[in-house]
Give the backbone structure.
Amino acid sequence: MIADAKSTSTPMVNLTINDRPLSVPQGTNLIEAAAKLGIHVPHYCYHPKLTVVGNCRMCLIEMGTPQIEPDKKSVLKPDGPPEITWMPRPQIACATLVSEGMAVRTHSKMVEECRKGVMEFLLINHPLDCPICDQAGECRLQEYSVDYGTGGSRFVERKVKRPKKVELGPRVTLDDERCILCSRCVRFCQEVAKDDVLGFTDRGGHTTLGCYPGKKLENNYSLNTVDICPVGALTSSDFRFQMRVWFLKEARSVCTSCATGCNITVGSREGVVYRYTPRQNDAVNSTWMCDAGRLNYAWINDPRRLTRPLKNGQSAEWSDALPDARHLLREAGMKGQLAIVASGRASTEELFLVRQMAALFPAAAVDIVGRTGGHDQILVSADKNPNTSGAKLLGLATGKLAEIKKGIESGRIKTLFVQGENLEKAGFEAGLLAKLDALVVLDILPSPTTQMATWVLPGAAHVEKNGTFINGRGRLQRFLPSFSVKGHAHEDWYILKELLPEAEHTQYHSFHSVFEAMVRETPALAGVAWEGVGDQGTPLDLKL
Amino acid sequence: MMTEPMIAGLWTDTVSFFGVHAVAVVLLKIAVVLFALLGLVSYTVLAERRISAFIQDRLGPNRVGWFGLLQPVADSFKFLLKENVMPAHVNRIYYVLAPCIALAPALLTFIVIPFGNTLAGEPMVIANLNVGVLWMFSIASLGVYGIVLGGWASNSKYPFLGGIRSSAQMISYEISMGLSLIPVFMHVGSLNLTEIVNAQSHRWLFLHPNLFLAFLIFMISSFAETNRLPFDLPESEQELVGGYHTEYGSMKFALFFLAEYANMITASALMVTLFFGGWQVPFALPESLSHPVTWLAPFVFQPVGFVYILSFFLKMLLFLGVFIWIRWTLPRFRYDQLMNLGWKVFLPMALANVFVMGIWMALSV
Amino acid sequence: MTIKIERPVLKWHENLYFPAIWGGIKVTSRHFWKTVGNWISGKKYGMITSTGRVTMEYPEEKWAVPNEYRGAPTLVKDPDGRIKCVACQLCEFVCPPRAITITPEPIPGQLPNATVEKWPKEFEIDMLRCIYCGLCEEVCPEEAIFLLKDYSFVGESREELVHNKERLLELGGMRQDKIYKWKNK
């Protein structure tokens, strides 16, 4: 979107790439220009979000400019197009900006010869330990070897030995033999993370990547270097040797660790999450995400996950749980003894259903549990709930949590419904919860609150269901499931709608019917469609 | 030396002492016959495997016991101990019921068959019914329900086709089978199998030309009724995998298997009874056999009773051999050939045979 | 194009089936008695044809399997006794019946082969699933997995027929080849 705005204000430049005419904004480099025609110019060191250094030499192309007569007119060929003067040597596409009348060849014989040469040089000292390399499967060296390489090596000398298994920081492991010296990681630390710790030493045949003396790669964005490393030199210590990437099923999702809502790809296999990787969204997180958010997934794989309804701690059946819980909430709601603690970690659709429940009992107090923490100027937000804005939009963030606490103390509130929150952390001691007649908890992991619960209703993690979050800037973003719900647990929307009275819940026959009902009944969401939200989300005018 | 009535009386008195004479004797006979029948079934399977092996230049099962004679024991243990798999898609109640329904009629038919003359004064038949043959036909036709039910309850296409074929085949051949026996009744004048056997004390029925034709029709129809090759279309492996028992395993499959062999034994026993003199022996027995053996006095059996049973048994084995041999000799009929044979050949032939028999009898009066 | 094959027109006596049945019985009887004769006279086997014996008494006598035979997949060690597998999981990926499950782990630092960095913590081949296709052997970049000649496995439970790392290494043994790719890492 930002790029589009730029294109209207900057002048356009005409050029031809492989004899195909093209018009791009001034200042575009040739890799981006070619990409507009669907032509991929191979590259290692170039990254659209970092400065251009042009040191890998992989993006060599052949270019030429129109011949100019002394009167500054182009010399035309007999059949019309201008005569081109081709440069005798190849140029790097990443550092070459478009100019009027420029002609480019990305797949000529010379270019292909050049790429073969560059690939051969890059692989001279490469250890070829693909079988143990975590990058295998998403490695640019592998891909370009197949696409542009020679297929064999003429190098008979001893390969240069360099350090392997170097811990650059608590989360990043370096294998220097695999490094092709593209310097993407160095530039990332300087330009994006503003933590200049990486550099090259022993320049020459033995150039080695390393941290400056006394420093470590330990900033909160260090794992982004692993993402942008085009080869397997920088690997995540967390993901190291856990699973080969080709087994991972990828689903588009949103990070739940703070209100920024970085777009992520969840990599999972057979119901186990192995990693989060950032997904490009220039309106939210560019192509980055923080380490804290990235590594916050282990709870999904927790063996203690709740997979069956529990009645007073004993395993029970859904056929008993849902009607009984519904009855408990209704009885208390009618007497004005009900309070609801919703969660800023729940999806907007789930919060909508909670609001429907609250609307049945106007006397019932509702609030969410707020979470705040440190923030930085890059991505991390101080609000640690991914969906505070959603709760605010639906009127659930009322600030009445203290009132609920008092109500329980005074005995006015006798039944509490808790959505995925550990109330101990919000200041509700066990003794306080023991005063309740009934406690219905919807959660996915056992907590002190679920231990006190009359009914525990096991729900789904966000990687197991559809949903939307509204991030701190009011952007509605959707997340999609990676795999199905564990055990006998249900998706939360299903449980929540079952807790509504019979007459209310028949209209919610699927997740999408909940989404549509939410859009229908929320003016701020007018005109939003599930498909329309897309993978990049849609900005809302919230005026919160 | 006790005379025969005295011996019989002693026996009767002994049993009456317990006050359950009739019941006890019947139960004893049922137990012995059932045991012998099931044993015979498993050894028929062994015989089938050995004979087929020899016909195909192989050896057959020769590992368990002497010459493989304990193979049936090993097999039965295997069947009993196998994992009892029930496919998810079957209709559970009928799926389990079907093999039982298949086996029960096969065993029930046997109760009307006289397998010997008398032993200690007791007639060697479990139920001496006056409508023995009708009983046999009515029970035998129940057997098809087991197969059809098995095919249907399996909820799978091959068993279903097998079940359909089986019912069509059984219905077709039951008609010619029933009609083929009418000349026998015309000749003997009774439906009681004991009387039919008694009527053959001088001349076995198959020696009569009309009745020989009847025998041929009956025998071929019994091949079809027992689903044996060349008429085993309900299970034809090449087209239907295993037909009606495709989805069956372990003991449930074994019951189908037992039913097939029990049917074979019953069919053989019937052919012996109806056409080959039943327990009669084709020669005069030495007089001495009719006397009780002294050292057997406590049990007061006379050897001649055993000779008759043995005679019946040997004749039955002969027919079982024919069943087995035919299976490994003839290829399977096409379905249309099977139907043609049943409806266009055997049905008119059996009908005509009834008329010819009638004319014969009218002329010979 | 339809090819019409004329069925032979049968004579009346052929239509009775009896000649064919009689012919069949003659054939089966001949084989039966010949086999019985061989058996009794101690030759033990069924008919002996021009190509040799027809029947082999299996557990005592076994076929000599050809060298190209694909039996059970096994893991091998190199002449130095190192487990060759580096847990790259390509075999797990290529396995058509999904019989292979590998749990990779870093090699503990104190071991002599720690320079290889990675090996299988657990390597399981479910022999109830294995179809002996040999794709795992073909795909292995380390020549660590080989299909040997073993084909007969029995077990009293399903678990027993899931070969684990120890069993696979025991079956595979040491391979005398000259590949020392990781030796000087």
